[in-house]
């Protein structure tokens, strides 16, 4: 059965493999999985990475401060065995946190960073005393709520001094890119590395680097525009649209991430990176632009932020633009889930009817966020499509109803990113966001 399915996919995709847009599509990574990785190379590395991630323990909780002031909160995990800080999580205000850690003995603590230097000042900054935790491989510990009382005399029993935002205290964990300056033509932004993020996500994290890249130094007078790529994509996909920006008023930020993990995990990871940047730079406005699967990742991040928001809004999002996103999923992902010897978690989420897709549109966007849905329709044969995603998936009604504007373009799934008309419409949306009140 597997051999017959392989031959069928190869026959159906033979005429498409020559097209550059297919190499960037959701469909192609399922086709390539079968046609090119049948020998097991890609599947072996993916299986190994999935198993290694499954061995990690997960901590989840909320950190809060009993104070009317809004100061960053630093949540710290200390490795008792190595006597080093394993990791920290930054929040611009009270909110949820999470950690992914190897099995071991840890201490969990938090403090209100009143002087915003990421260093704990005993007696000057209120804290929550450390909680001892013994974590088993694969354990998931939830409900770890930390309440910081400014009147408390509790102190953290270990030092937290000048901890770098992008470094992790565990050798098994890679650095997180937070504002790393790069060029849009950086060799790290390549099709090869985009594929690496699917087939060997851990190598991608260590050798390429996930997070948020800048193209210039942060400028408090310019509004950040965060661009989020799609499946097996990379920041270089945005070259045309970034080149059309008014760089005197906007600064492009480029998300980069492996596309194998579950999409809600990718969304939360993206939100974590943005929270750390908000603590560092204090920006108050952010515009979001996402392509293909990146729209689903970005929407998952927005939903998580909205569902866990406090009464104090720290970052205002006047505009969110999705481009050719498969809101109803993709049949290729469903085939991969059904027939592939190893299943990338993101395929499960992308399969039509998945619980992830069902939940995605159930959370309303913030009233001030104008959502624009761009779709492409230059495809051929059968149901209307853009060569990769069906138009019916791009125009899923629950998501379409939340859009302020819906705009179609006679482009393929990836040529839409090089369209002059799309660039013009995007710049018009950005111009409106400049004058939006909050």
Question: Can you characterise this structure?
Answer:
- The protein has 438 residues and is an alpha/beta fold.
- The protein has 2 domains: 58-148, Immunoglobulin-like; 177-435, 3-Layer(aba) Sandwich (Rossmann fold).
- It has 14 helices and 16 strands.
- The strands form 3 sheets. An 8-stranded mixed β-sheet has the order 9-10-12-11-13-14-15-16, with helices on both faces. Strands 1, 4, 7 and 8 form a 4-stranded mixed β-sheet that branches.
- A hairpin with a 4-residue loop joins strand 2 and strand 3 (84-91).
- The chain is globular.
- The N and C termini lie far apart (58 Å).
CATH architecture of the largest domain: 3-Layer(aba) Sandwich
Q: Largest sheet, order of strands side by side?
A: 9-10-12-11-13-14-15-16
| Main structural class | alpha/beta
Average of the residue pLDDT scores: 88
Number of strands: 16
Sum up the overall morphology in one term.
globular
What is the helix fraction of residues, given as a range? 25-40%
End-to-end distance, in Å? 58 Å
The proportion of residues in beta strands is 15-25%
CATH 4th-level superfamily of the largest domain: Alpha/Beta hydrolase fold, catalytic domain
Give the uncertain stretches in residue-range form.
Answer: 1-39
Q: Any idea of the CATH class of the largest domain?
A: Alpha Beta
CATH topology tier name of the largest domain? Rossmann fold
Number of domains: 2
Major sheet details: 8 strands, mixed
Order of helices and strands: HHHEEEEEEEEEHHEEHEHEHEHHHEHHEH
What would you report as the Rg, rounded to the nearest angstrom? 22 Å
Structure annotation, total helices? 14
